[in-house]
Backbone:
């Protein structure tokens, strides 16, 4: 789970709640430290302030209690009297929401679980108009706000992302934005199909026929080319594909 809140100067500050196998925890900390100090890591205070790694101590509280405090601070301040600067937590929460809205900052992000994006998109659909078995069940779970049922249908809490039955589909923009970034926009959700053996064999045969046809077409193009004009084999192959 990732929660973002602003520093006093508006700089985004992350709180991460992550679970690792015991033998990988130290390695994970090394990787985080490497990236935290990658730029200007030798400036005063960087090693002390940029990254703090704490192991959950059951005697002090649970992992749920830790992350719930920061979620509350960034929603409505419920259960918190004052913020870090001694100000009213509810007023600070409103300012935090305005900060996130102004700069387009995603305040909360679940990591590793079922897709929240799919959950939101399915809530827009009507299960009565869709007869697709699992998809209809997922829509009913989302519409009923049954996150536990939705997670179960999506493969469970620790299912790898590439094995989820329904995933969001993003399309990349053809041009870069003013920061030189390629923007991905959500266009739809797609269902992962489980191909039968017969379908897999059929698709492989179709692919083989396409490859054979392509090789024949390429050979015919090569025969039509004039050797004196195309001496470079790399140029020859490129021209033939065109």
Residues:
């Amino acid at each position: 789970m990732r929660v973002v809140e602003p520093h006093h100067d508006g700089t985004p500050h992350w709180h991460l709640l992550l679970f690792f196998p015991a033998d990988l925890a130290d390695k994970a900390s090394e990787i985080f430290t490497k990236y935290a100090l990658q730029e200007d890591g030798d400036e005063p205070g960087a090693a002390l302030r940029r990254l703090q790694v704490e192991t959950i101590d059951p005697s002090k509280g649970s992992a749920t209690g830790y992350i719930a405090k920061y979620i509350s601070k960034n929603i409505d301040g419920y259960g918190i009297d004052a913020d870090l600067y001694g100000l009213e937590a509810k007023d600070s929460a409103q300012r935090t929401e305005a900060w996130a809205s102004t700069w387009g900052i995603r305040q909360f992000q679940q990591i590793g679980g079922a897709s929240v994006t799919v959950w939101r998109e399915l809530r827009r659909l009507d299960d009565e108009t869709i007869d697709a078995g699992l998809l209809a069940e997922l829509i009913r779970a989302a519409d009923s706000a049954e996150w536990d049922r939705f997670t179960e249908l999506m493969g469970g809490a620790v299912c790898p992302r590439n094995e989820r039955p329904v995933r969001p589909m993003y399309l990349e923009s053809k041009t870069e934005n003013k920061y030189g970034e390629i923007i991905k926009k959500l266009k739809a959700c797609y269902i992962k199909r489980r191909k039968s053996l017969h379908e897999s064999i059929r698709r492989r045969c179709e692919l083989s026929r396409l490859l054979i046809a392509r090789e024949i077409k390429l050979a015919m193009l090569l025969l039509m080319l004039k050797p004196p004009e195309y001496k470079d084999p790399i140029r020859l192959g490129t021209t033939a594909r065109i």
Remarks:
- DSSP finds nine helices and five strands in the chain.
- The two ends are 48 Å apart (CA to CA).
